[in-house]
Amino acid sequence: MANINKERLTALAGYFAMVLFSVLFIVVGNKIAVGDQQFFARDDGTEILAAKVDKVLNRQEDRQDMGGTERVTVTIDFDATVIRGEHKGMQIKAQQINDSFMAVGYKEVEAGDKLLLYGYTGGAEPLWLMHEYIRSDALIVLAAVFIVLLLIYGRKKGFHSVLALGFTCLSIFVVFIPAILSGKNIYVCSFILMAFITVMTLTLVNGFNRKSLSAGIGLFGGLTAAGLVFWLTDIFLKLSGYVSEESIYLAYVNPDNPIDLKAILFAGILLGALGAVMDVAVSIAASLQEVHDSSEHPTFAALMKSGLNIGQDMLGTMMNTLVLAYIGSSLSLVLILIVYSNSLLELFNKEMIVVEVLQSLAGSVGLLAAIPLTTLVSSYIYINKPKA
To answer: Residue 371's closest CA among 325, 318, 323, 320?
Structure first.
């Protein structure tokens, strides 16, 4: 009983130590990453306000013949009330302009809609225009429902998972992205981020034990293999990093210290593979622990065989998960490229398509490396662990 209580106290101390370390990593990391940079700061005389539509005042429709093509411009005037920030409660007049020649056509505003209004405040009287619908409120509600369901189903494990997910998102958006925009070395930042997410997630969700150690080593090996695939194939693929229009804009964010676009590809490959490889590594480590604990006379060979069989069953579905995730996230882009390509040869040599294929292949190689490595490490660690 004393040993059990001591183990629980040690596990609890390790858990809170990891929580404290994660908080410090995010707070200190943010200060180092941001430095003297300022994000989301406008100095061009423009401002964005969150407002709620009170009343639609007028709707005007203008039609023009543009050489056989009709151009329709709809202008809607409305009253709105600012709902957030220092100007909360202020009454303003604004417009929504929908042009059929614009790439994006928004739904016409109605009373009760919540909007982001864009205005130039440098003049005598600012002109406020509809910029975007406020969608974050609905996302917050959806996220809250997801968290509640996860806590109901997962209970204590669910809470640990939510906490780990929160630290993961914060480390990416509060530390990693500002570090990139501030001109820090992306390769070094990627390594630090992957190491933090791996240790933090495995410790908070599974505890600091043999299972987490086995999964962590297997995960590290898988990510290393995925990174090596990128380095080796880059020699032959001659990647530039300009895979989309966004990449061109990104190259001019910091002219004095330009962002390394190929390093962005490297980080994207590791981030994309991290979740799938972690899932496989943890599943194999947990399964082999169950096999070891339920067998009367477990052997190294038996554990190795079981782990490889489990890995083979998982490999096909997890590779599909990687490929479908990449295709699904860029489906619109794939459709556009197919429409405007002259042949399959041209399509499959476009850098955007090459990078998507490379991400899938690198992630799959990471899975192939993680499965036997996790199996080997788990078998060795468990077989040398005295059974309870």
So the answer is: 318
